[in-house]
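re: ur question from earlier - yeah i can do the single chain one, its not a big deal. heres the input i used so u can compare w yours
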Amino acid sequence: MAKVDFKNREELKYTSRVLSKVLLVLMLVLVVYAFNFSSSEKIKLQTDGSVILHGSMRTKGQGEVSSPYSFKASKGISYYFYDTVPGNVAHDTFLMINTYFGKTRIYHNDKIIGEFGVNKQLDNGKLVGNIRMMVPLNATMAGEDIMIEYTPYYSMEVNYMAPMYGTEIALTRYVLTSNLLELVLILILMTLFLIASAMWIYLKASSSKGDIRNMGYFALFCLAVACWMFFASDLPQFVTNASEACALMRYTFMSIIPIAFCGFMERVLPSGKKSLEWFKTFGWLIPIFNVILFFVGFADPMDTLWMTKAYTTVVVVLVFLFAMSNFRRDLDCRIITTGLIVLFLFVGIGYMLKHDSLSETYLLAIMGLGLTINASFMLATIGRRLMVVMEDENDVFTYKTMAFADSLTGLENRASFEGFFDNLENNTAADGKTVILYMFDLNFLKVTNDKFGHKAGDQLLTGLSQCLKKTFERYGSVYRLGGDEFAAIVVGHADMALNLVEKLKHNIDTYNLNSQYKISTAVGYATRKFHKGDVDIYDRLFKDADDMMYANKVRMHKELGEEVRNKRN
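and the output i got, formated as tokens:
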């Protein structure tokens, strides 16, 4: 196999694009596979009382402990918790508890009254997720003890929460309320994703010089954060029973967040581009490896979570250092640095408050808020850059308009007229069609200037230009060649050649009814079918149209006694 030289940045970009497409295909397969086979356990929440929260519970060997109870859980080791069912339990009361990525059994008088995560749903791994498990109780259990057996599938820090009690509707409302901030943040991020996607489409369609790839990375970042927050929250339980599929989506999107962030910063930061490009390309391998390792049964994404965390930490630190190195010189670096400081602050607050939270969704909400605010800072850099690009493009448009437009009439000028014929060979739409060239010479201009002044003469020029626009704008282009000379070019519409002349006469007559200075113009036109390689078309058309226009001028001189300009040689 030929060795790939990654020193070539184009090859590196190509590799990054290939890896991202590979991941997309794997994710599609993963979604279909996981959601199709991991929905056997009915954990989907039903969408009406109060919820009873216990501030403590008992553990085996330790007695009473506060809730939540923080401890280091070991994979495969069973932990036992005890609680007393409230004395006012009715037939419609439920117990609710988190399962913390493990199997959970609930006993009453040594009889199992509820369990989750015991039976394997997928053939690969045990990524059952952190589920809100609800178990129905009956009035005979009032005031009696229950035992909870918790066996984690992974070694991790756990903040174990005492059971909650209430009706199914009351518990469901509690879950929805506790996830309200996550829901709002998800909606904000999806709105940003849709806006960025629309801008990406617009920039691509308009051939704008705006950074299309940067807009794409921002859209991907917003989508990845929104999806990670959704699948990490309790919200999927209102939609599906596929707990393992949701857990897989959670860690897959989590691993995409730093990749999109790295790709965005590589486009924005003035320094460190090569390093960030390397890390962006390398980053695609992490979710790809996670999916492959899961499918072959070697490891779950929870087992390789350290890779995503390490990669994210390195990327964020690198971006922060590169941004700080240009903090004083570059406005974008100041915006990015401020956004990262806000993110660090929220992550720190989240971890400090984690041990006081009733569920890990509390940490999720704090971190999600930090990421959403950071996304707003990223959007600020995009907006600033787009404004610069739009100003540049507007300047270019203005310069082009000034170069190819007549300042008095607003018609295209001689340079634009000659440019049409210069580029006719490359105009595939004109090949095989009839080209009609019209020439016009405005009468009375010199007499009007001498007798009434140049403002009156300008009114004649602008008046004729208005009539020409009205006549030809649906069929072709109109030009002021200079002085009192005008032209129009029509491609196709060969049968309209004479009709357009009559239409112009009608428009001039209508204009003259309400005009102080009357318009009169000599007209000439010529037609010729264009085929590629016809290099003489301009000379022939111009000569024939000019001759006809001059003959018309002579005839008008004889009829009206007007001065006639000298005929071109």
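Residues 361-404 form the longest helix (44 residues). not sure if urs matches, ping me
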